[in-house]
Each structure stands twice: as structure tokens, then as C-alpha cells.
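For reference, the entry.
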Amino acid sequence: MNRTYRHHMGMAARLGCLATVLLAAGCAATPATWMVPYSINPTHAAAVTPIKPTGHKVLRLATVSTTQWLATQNYQYRLLYQDPQRLLVYRDARWVGTPAAMLQNQLQQQLQNSGQWRAVLSASSSGAASWVLQVHLNRFVVRFSTPTSGTAVIAGTATLLSNANSQVVAQQHFQYSAPLVQASAAGGAAAMAIATTHFVSAVRHWTAAVVQ
């Protein structure tokens, strides 16, 4: 009788352990929280018709560089009214690409569509260029001044070089911000799209003015 009892008790213990292992495996397989992807494309952008090139020079857009804390797709923000120095990250939102990559796409598209250059080459494109445009992004963040208001800020430095001798021709710092219509991740992304549009436009016009 004792032997039978011990047998059943051992079997129950093993089944209990197996159930625990299966439960743990089930928890580990739980899918991660869905993160809504946001971009900096204008929300209601009108169709852009490329202007026929009138310029005679070729520009190369180098790969946009950035600081280490921006080399991520994390959607970062600050609460200025609570802890201005602390950089926070949304748990349920992210950018569709790194800020530098998203800015690269915007710059490439706007420069190509401007008609101010015979051609605009990417960093990996073959071909000779007269000028090289370098952009370093050092700020790309949504800042909440109160729980219901804030701004999106983008800042960076543009450097134009002569491709003939790699000498710096001109350098300019740009910073733009846009207020949030809604204090949320979606509101911050919409404001960042507006601020980025101004940033890209300013860089485009400055570059064209320098080479004239």
C-alpha cells in the first residue's frame, strides 16, 4: 500500500513539473506589445510634380549622420514639466525608420524634385558630382511642456563641400519646431512631419543659393 501511494505521489509531482514547464513556455511565447509605426511624411501632402531640371551641376547627398542616441527607431520624447533631462520612449509607438534614414529620404526626394540640379546622386550612386552635401542630425525629439501641449523639434548642420578638392565651401545650422495639435504620439508625429518639411526646405534653398 505504501509503495502504491509513493508511486502515485511521484507521478503527480512529475505531472506538476511538466505543467509548470508548459505554462512557462506559453508565457515566453506571448507576442510583444504592438507598436504603432509613425513616419514624418506630410499627412495631407499634395502630389508633387518634379520640376524640369534647369541647373547644370550635379549634387551628391551623403548619408545623413546622427548622434548615437538617435541611431534607433525608438519614438523618444521629453516631459519638460517633470524631468527635462530625462529621455523617455513610447512603449506602443515607434518610427518607421531611424530619424536619419527618414530625413535622408525626404532630402533626396525634395532635392531631386526641385529642378535646381542636373542630377542628385545618392551616397551609393556611381557618377561624378560637382558638390557633396553632408547633413548631421543632432536633435529629433518631441517635447511636452505641459500634459496637454508640446512641440516637435528637429535640428542639424548642413555642410557643402567641393568634390574637386573636398574643401568645405559653406556650413549652416538649422533648427525648426512645430506645435502639437494633440498631446499624443500621433500628434507628435504630425508636428514632426511639419518641422521636418521646413528643415528640408531650408537646407534645399540654402544649398542652391551657395552654389549660384
